[in-house]
Amino acid sequence: MYKDKTLTHFNEDGRARMADVSGKEATLRTAAATAKVLVNKNTFELIKEGRLAKGDVLGTAQIAGVMAAKKTPDLIPMCHPIQITAVDIDFELHEKEPAVYIEATVKCSGVTGVEMEALTAASVTALTVYDMCKSVQKDIEITDIRLLSKTGGKSGDYSRKT
Questions:
Q1: Is the CB of residue 126 less than 8 Å from the CB of residue 110?
Q2: Which positions are catalytic?
């Protein structure tokens, strides 16, 4: 028998399970995650000027990120389906690197957090930028996918130290 109660995603036999959150109190929960897409100067200019053959890179990536947050429990096996109340994707274009910085923010009022939804949104947004640009650049890099912050819930707030 498996007795470690700190690992909530395993049953007594050591098999995977979805954690029971039915006894938890609903609170406002938020999470923000980031990703960075490193491109060359030519690709950066094409993104900035909206001149890629596939269309509006950032607009398409933004929609993909929102959709990804909503589909997170379909992608991450033990992730609870939750009632998301807001998803926002922000971009910063950094000409010096050159890179597209992505920040995904997700909110809900519920019994479990939205960290996975924010991380999934940031990741899929970055993958969409890659997909939209791969015809003009093969060596694009996606880096720095990470949780920036979370609020709400029993474990309290978290903010990444830079």
A1: no
A2: 131
